[in-house]
Amino acid sequence: MDHIPYHEHVLLTGKTRSGKSVLAEVYLAGFDKEVIMLDTKGQVYERRRKKEELWYGLEEGVEYTVCETFEELLECETLKAIYVPVPEEQTPDGFERFFKYCYDKQNLTVWVDELMSVADSPRSYPFSLKSLYTRGSSRGETGTSVWACTQRPYDIPAVAMANSTHFFVFRMNQDQDRKKMVAVTGCPEMDQAPTGHNFWYFQDGWDEPVMAKLKYEKRERG
Fold first, then answer.
1. H/E element, 72
2. CA 131 to CA 72: how far, in whole Å?
3. How would you class 125 by CB atoms within 10 Å of its CB: exposed for 0-12, middle for 13-18, buried for 19 or more?
4. Burial of residue 59, with CB atoms counted within 10 A of its CB: 0-12 exposed, 13-18 middle, 19 or more buried
5. Which among 49, 84, 149, 173 has the fewest CB atoms less than 10 Å away?
6. Which pLDDT score is estimated for 216?
7. CA distance 222 to 220
8. Distance CA 12, CA 56 (A)
9. Contact present, 132 and 99 (Cβ < 8 Å)
10. pTM (2 decimals)?
11. Least confident residue range of 67-76, 133-142, 198-207
């Protein structure tokens, strides 16, 4: 797999603990451009409790900042940020404001930890998120890309599928989710569920996917 261009959209699918979020975390830690992670599941708090790194390989306060409100995000000065919105900001208006900010800011990557968490249904996704998918990457290297993780690709909007260029497909138990990825990529191999932390990788324009395995060393904070 070659380096993924900063301005191209990426979709990662797989059941809980299959490895999709870990892959995104490790890969995006190496991006030398601005990255904002939208943490709707509050994994930051769980990791703090377990004394684990909040972002693998990066130093909090130096390379990334944890922001709990949108105002804190606006004042963030580090290259990367984890936006773990308070409940009052996890609303349709709150998500619309966040994605519009990302669209207008340009030259960054938005990492959404669970795409289904930002909308009540496939028809109610924030307008500015749709704009990111359809126009965010059209600015080339200065565009805004979306890295989206989801457990259930069957339920996410077509705009996310149609505009993603790279697909990381981990194990999914639901037959309809695997069939969805077969339909999106045109690769019948996607109907075969990878085992362990193995995953299918497919790039738009390829004839078939490749099988790979996620490997990383888990570390605790000192």
1. helix 70-74
2. 24
3. buried
4. exposed
5. 49
6. 56
7. 6
8. 18
9. yes
10. 0.92
11. 133-142
User: What token pair was written down for 30?
Assistant: 């190496």
Other beta carbons less than 10 A from residue 3's beta carbon? 8
At residue 13, the 3 state secondary structure works out as: strand
Q: Classify residue 91 as exposed, middle or buried by CB count within 10 Å of its CB (0-12, 13-18, 19+).
A: exposed
Between vectors from CA 219 to CA 79 and to CA 151, what angle results, nearest 5°?
70
Position 123 confidence tier, pLDDT thresholds 50, 70, 90: confident
Higher pLDDT, 214 or 8: 8
Amino acid code (one letter) for 17? R
The single residue listed with the structure tokens 């790979």 is 212
Q: What is the mean pLDDT of residues 145-174?
A: 93
**What is the separation, in whole angstroms, between the first and last Cα of the chain?**
33
Read off the tokens for 125.
């996704």
Location of structure tokens 């600015």? 139
DSSP-based three-state secondary structure for 219: coil
Q: Which domains does the chain have, with CATH numbers?
A: 9-213 (3.40.50.300)
Nearest to 129 by CA among 9, 2, 31: 9
E strand map for 39-141: 64-67, 80-83, 108-112
Give the count of beta carbons closer than 10 Å to the beta carbon of residue 5: 13
